[in-house]
Amino acid sequence: FRRSTSITNGRNLRCPLSYFLINNNTVIGVLKILTFQLEKILSKTRVLSTEFLLCRPLMQFGLSKSINTVVGKLRLSSGKYFNMSAVSFTVGRKDCSTAGVDVSKMCAAHHAIDKHVKDGMILGIGSGSTIVYGVQRLAQRMKDENLSVVCVPTSYQARQLIIDYKLTLGNLDTNPKIDCTIDGADEIEVGTLTCIKGGGGCLTQEKIVASCSEKLIIVADGAKEVNCLGQKWKRGIPIEVIPMSCKPTQQKNRRKVWR
C-alpha cells in the first residue's frame, strides 16, 4: 500500500487518496476492511470522500453486479491514471451532516454545481460561506473537464472569489441573460421555500442577477431550514437603501399611502 491523505484546509479542498494493487481473490475482503477503517477515519476528520484506484479493469474481477451488495457505500467510475487502466472506488459518508455544518454546506454546494452547471453556461455566483465551496468545486470541474463557464458575481465577495480561483469573470453589460444563478440564503421556510436573503449586505445586486436568470438555485445546509421564517434568523428582514433612489422612492411611497 502507498497511502497519502489530505483534508480540507482553507481554500484548498482535497480528498484523501489511497492507491493499491490487488488480485481477484482478495479484492472483496480488502474493500470490506478498508471501508470499515475509513468509517473510523472519516468520523474524525473534515473530509468528504476517499478514493481507491485499482490498476486493473473492473470486469476482470467480475464485481460489477455484486459491488453494491458487498460494500454499499462504494460508487463506481472508470478512468485512466498514469497511463494505466484503472477503476475508481469512491467511498463516501452516508450522512454528510454527521461531519458538521461545514461538510453539509460542502455537500450541498458540490451537488448544485455537479447537477446544474454545464459547458458554455453563463452562471451567476452568489455570496456566503456555502457558495465558497461551490466556487471551489466549479474551479475543479473547469480544470478537470475543460469547461467553459462565464461567472457573473452578485457581490464584491463573489467577484473576488471568481478572480481568486481564476474563473472567467463576466458582468450584466456583456451577459444580460444568465442561464443559472447559484446563491445562498439566511433562512428557508420548508413548506413554501420562501427565503430570507440579503443578510450579507448584497440584497439588491443579488435580486438583479436572479431576475436575469432562467433558473435560481438556492444552496444551504439543513441548519437554515425552518417551519416559519424568523425562527432562527433574529436580525430582521434585510432592506438595502440606495442613496440615489431615495427621493423617487419617497415620492412613490407617499402616493401609495394617500391613495
From TrEMBL:
<dbReference type="GO" id="GO:0006014">
    <property type="term" value="P:D-ribose metabolic process"/>
</dbReference>
<comment type="pathway">
    <text>Carbohydrate degradation; pentose phosphate pathway; D-ribose 5-phosphate from D-ribulose 5-phosphate (non-oxidative stage): step 1/1.</text>
</comment>
<dbReference type="InterPro" id="IPR037171">
    <property type="entry name" value="NagB/RpiA_transferase-like"/>
</dbReference>
<comment type="similarity">
    <text>Belongs to the ribose 5-phosphate isomerase family.</text>
</comment>
<dbReference type="GO" id="GO:0009052">
    <property type="term" value="P:pentose-phosphate shunt, non-oxidative branch"/>
</dbReference>
<keyword id="KW-0413">Isomerase</keyword>
<dbReference type="GO" id="GO:0005737">
    <property type="term" value="C:cytoplasm"/>
</dbReference>
<dbReference type="Pfam" id="PF06026">
    <property type="entry name" value="Rib_5-P_isom_A"/>
</dbReference>
<dbReference type="InterPro" id="IPR004788">
    <property type="entry name" value="Ribose5P_isomerase_type_A"/>
</dbReference>
<protein>
    <recommendedName>
        <fullName>ribose-5-phosphate isomerase</fullName>
        <ecNumber>5.3.1.6</ecNumber>
    </recommendedName>
</protein>
<dbReference type="GO" id="GO:0004751">
    <property type="term" value="F:ribose-5-phosphate isomerase activity"/>
</dbReference>
